[in-house]
Amino acid sequence: MHIKQASPALKLVAALLLSAALSSCGKSQTGGMPAAGPVSVGIITLQAQGTVLSRELPARISAFTVAEIRPQVGGIIQKRLFTEGSEVKAGQVLYQINPDTYQAAYQTAQASQAKAEATLTSAELKARRYAQLAEIKAISSQDNDDAHAALLQARADLATAKASVETARINLAYTRITAPVSGRIGKSSVTAGALVTANQTTALATVQQLATAYVDMTQSSTELLHLRRDFAKGALQSQPGKAKVKLILEDGSEYAKEGELQFSDITVDASTGMVTLRAAFDNPNGELLPGMFVRARLEQGVRQHALLLPQQAVSRNQKGEAVVMVVGQDNKVSARTIKTSQTVGNKWLVDSGLQGGEHIVVEGLMKVQDGTVVKAEPLAANASAAK
Q: How far, rounded to the nearest angstrom, does the alpha carbon of residue 40 sit from its chain's CA centroid?
């Protein structure tokens, strides 16, 4: 086989390329890229302090007073004397039932009373005369006794007649159906001409007092037991006075006025396992309407030495556990699993895993992992991080 030798020009080019390659390797080995420095992260320092804990619960509005209007006598409705949805005063006439039969009964009772009064007058005169005659033996003792008995019966008949007059007067008054309380009246279930009966099941209308509104909240019996245990062991402390309640309305806005917890029910609903709590709110403008769904934020107590952590500082591992990055004294980051129970504003309440004074990475989490050396820079909001 015949092999051609490379020309002198090709040999020169190859020598130059080899020299450039060796020079490049030399620079790479001796110089290279500068070593990576500490990663800058923003941190906060945990500060333990007393914190008021609250719980957001589902709730519904109910009226302070509810009065269902029902007739106490039967008859035909002649008039409806109110405007549906308006404010009514206690004692205001709402309906007029035809009073004719009750007026006649009242007049009959009055006549019976007059008759009884006349009978009593006659019996008194007769008894007085018979008593005088009995003293002189002009009549028998039996006749005198009969006259005295007739007097007693006449007095009893008059008392009965007076009671009948009062009953007839009351029934006549019941034909004017009045509002038992002041408040806002709803729609009427009957119109003029309708026949109603005494104490019927269906209410004619309903009057509700809305100047004060009740808020009925529901809380699970399990949460209630945990609360009581926390109070018993001192983990939570009660505040003086009644617990405060705030409302979140259906549109997400917060109701301007603050309410107070009135009571907690003494029984648990067997079907739901929930306990009902009731708070009272001033409602001068009628903004809170019965049946409205709201969220109630109920103050449950004060936790001393509570640790609050910004939510952005907490991530989750594959097990779903809460994890934070803690900066140690050697400026190295270590991942730590913690336990949180609830939110307070935009922060997590830490139950375990952290202590006051520790430095937690809040900004730059994506740049660090367990063991990363960092340059910790306190955030401007550090002073309020535990609020």
A: 47
